[in-house]
Amino acid sequence: MERRLESERDARVDLTPMLDVVFILLIFFIVTSTFIQEQAIALEPPPPKCVGCDQEKSLAIRIYINEQSHIRVGNELTDLSRLRSTIERRRAESPSASVIVQAAPSAKTGTMIKVRDVIYDANIDRVNIVRSADGS
Q: How many CB atoms are located within 10 Å of the residue 85 CB?
């Protein structure tokens, strides 16, 4: 009978060393891991409205992209090849104007990116891209 009790006591497994190893491995993997930085399109929010600002600062060059990916600057229909010259002409009229790109929900993303690239090539850094709710 004594022998049976001794064998039951000896049969216990101590899990403490295994937990120590698990925590050491966990700490090792946390410390040595690297995190990936996600790339995103840089978007600038529209400037806040102010009462004392002059009218020239509140002007904006509006670019519309419709469902068929046709581009309009204001009311003037244009294409990608003439877009930069149109933007630069309007920017010469009001140098502090920002650019707002308004795209229809079903407009092609590639067209929006090309328009954004043309705007950045024209050295305009204040660009806002918004989605048109009504598609116009």
A: 12
pLDDT at 56: 46
Q: CA–CA distance from 105 to each of 59, 101, 127 (Å)?
A: 25, 12, 18
Backbone angles phi, psi at 25, to 5 degrees: -65, -40
Where do runs of H (alpha helix) occur along the chain? 2-10, 16-32, 80-93, 109-121
Q: How far apart are CA 133 and CA 104, in angstroms?
A: 7
Under-50 pLDDT residues of the chain: 56-58, 135-136
Please give the model's pTM, rounded to 2 decimal places: 0.55
Pull the structure tokens for residue 71: 């581009």
Write the pLDDT tens digit of every residue in 60-94. 889 999 888 899 998 889 888 899 998 888 888 88
State the burial class of residue 112 (Cβ atoms within 10 Å of its Cβ: 0-12, 13-18, 19+): buried
Strand (E) or helix (H) holding 34? none
What is the spatial distance between Cα 19 and Cα 17, in angstroms, rounded to a whole number?
A: 5
Q: What's 21's DSSP letter?
A: H
